[in-house]
C-alpha cells in the first residue's frame, strides 16, 4: 500500500529534513515513529529536503507499507509518537505510481522578513529580522526577473551538478503585510540554497544597496561569485505547499 502524508514542522530544532549520521532530522523522527507503529523499517520520500532551521506547513512524504493499519489510524498513531515540533496533518492511500518527489509539479516556498525596529519574541526563528525599512516595491520589481526557465548557477550551491541547474520559476512575488515582507516563490524544483540565496539578494535591493535590475543581472551572469549577497537565514523559510 502506497501512503501519502502531509507534515508540518518547526525546523528550529532540526538539522534539516534528510537523515544524517549526526544531528536530529525530521526524516529520522518520522522513520522512528513508523517503526514504533508498524514494527518495520520504511524508506520514505519527501517532496523537498528542507534546510537546517527551515520549516514546513505542507511537506509531502510517501512510503510503502503492508496495509495492516488503515491510513486514518496510521495518522493518529504517528502523531501520538512524533515529537511536539512535527505533526501529520493528513494521510491516505495513493496509487502505486505516486512519488512525493518525482510526481510533484510545483513547490511553493515563503520567505518572511521582519523590518520593525524591535527584535521578534513570538516570531523568533520564523523570520529574518532586518534592521531598517525594506523597500518592498523595489523587491517586487526585482523579483520579476526570476520568473521563467533559467540556469540558476548564480543562486544555487556550487555542490549542485552543473548540468542540472535549469529549473522553471512559475512565480515570484513580494508583498508587505504590516511589519512583515513576504517573498513567495513557486517553482518546479528548488536547488540547494536557491530560495535563501534569492531572499538574500532581494534583501540587498530592499535595503537600497542594489538597484532592482541587479537581481536579473546576477541571474544572467550564471556565476555564483556575482551574487555577493548574504544568504538569508534558514528560519525565515517555509515550504508551504507541494502541487501535483
Write a structural description.
- This protein has 244 residues and is an alpha+beta fold.
- It has two domains: 2-94, 2-Layer Sandwich (Alpha-Beta Plaits), CATH 3.30.70.580; 108-243, Alpha-Beta Plaits (2-Layer Sandwich).
- 22% of the residues lie in helices and 30% in strands.
- The protein is built from five helices and ten strands; from the N terminus they run βαββαβββαβββααβ.
- The chain has helices spanning 26-38, 71-81, 136-143, 194-206, 213-221; strands spanning 2-9, 44-46, 55-64, 86-94, 106-114, 128-129, 148-151, 166-177, 180-187, 237-243.
- Strands 1, 2, 3, 4, 5, 6, 7, 8, 9 and 10 form a ten-stranded mixed beta sheet that branches.
- A hairpin with a 2-residue loop joins strand 8 and strand 9 (180-187).
- Helix 1 crosses helix 2 (71-81) and helix 3 (136-143) crosses helix 4 (194-206).
- The longest helix is centred in the N-terminal third of the chain and has 13 residues, at 26-38.
- The model has no long low-confidence stretch (mean pLDDT 96).
Structural class: alpha+beta
| Element order: H for helix, E for strand | EHEEHEEEHEEEHHE
Number of helices: 5
Span between N and C termini? 19 Å
Q: Biggest sheet, in brief? A: 10 strands, mixed
Contiguous low-pLDDT stretches (5 residues minimum) are none
Give the count of structural domains.
2
* Average pLDDT number: 96
Strand content: 25-35%
CATH superfamily of the largest domain, called what? Pseudouridine synthase I, catalytic domain, C-terminal subdomain
The gyration radius over C-alpha positions equals 19 Å
Based on Cα principal axes, name the global outline: globular
CATH class assignment of the largest domain:
Alpha Beta
CATH architecture of the largest domain: 2-Layer Sandwich
- Using DSSP, what is the number of strands? 10
The proportion of residues forming helix, as a percent range, comes to 10-25%
Amino acid at each position: 500500500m502506497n501512503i501519502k502524508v502531509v507534515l508540518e514542522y518547526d525546523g528550529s530544532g532540526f538539522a534539516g529534513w534528510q537523515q544524517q549520521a549526526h544531528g536530529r532530522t525530521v526524516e529520522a523522527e518520522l522513520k522512528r515513529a513508523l517503526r514504533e507503529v508498524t514494527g518495520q523499517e520504511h524508506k520514505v520520500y519527501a517532496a523537498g529536503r528542507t534546510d537546517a532551521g527551515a520549516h514546513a506547513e505542507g511537506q509531502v512524504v510517501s512510503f510503502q507499507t503492508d496495509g495492516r493499519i488503515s491510513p486514518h489510524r496510521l495518522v493518529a498513531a504517528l502523531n501520538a509518537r512524533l515529537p511536539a515540533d512535527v505533526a501529520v496533518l493528513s494521510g491516505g492511500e495513493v496509487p502505486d505510481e505516486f512519488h512525493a518527489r518525482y510526481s510533484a509539479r510545483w513547490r511553493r516556498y515563503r520567505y518572511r522578513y521582519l523590518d520593525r525596529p524591535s527584535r521578534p519574541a513570538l516570531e523568533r526563528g520564523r523570520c529574518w529580522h532586518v534592521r531598517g525599512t525594506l523597500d518592498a516595491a523595489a523587491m517586487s520589481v526585482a523579483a520579476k526577473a526570476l520568473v521563467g526557465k533559467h540556469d540558476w548557477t548564480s543562486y544555487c550551491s556550487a555542490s549542485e551538478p552543473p548540468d542540472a541547474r535549469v529549473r522553471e520559476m512559475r512565480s515570484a512575488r513580494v508583498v508587505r503585510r504590516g511589519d512583515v515582507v513576504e517573498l513567495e516563490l513557486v517553482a518546479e524544483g528548488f536547488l540547494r540554497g536557491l530560495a535563501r540565496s534569492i531572499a538574500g539578494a532581494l534583501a540587498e535591493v530592499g535595503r537600497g544597496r542594489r538597484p532592482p535590475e541587479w537581481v536579473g543581472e546576477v541571474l544572467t551572469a550564471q556565476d555564483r561569485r556575482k551574487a555577493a549577497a548574504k544568504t538569508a537565514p534558514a528560519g525565515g523559510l517555509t515550504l508551504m505547499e507541494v502541487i501535483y
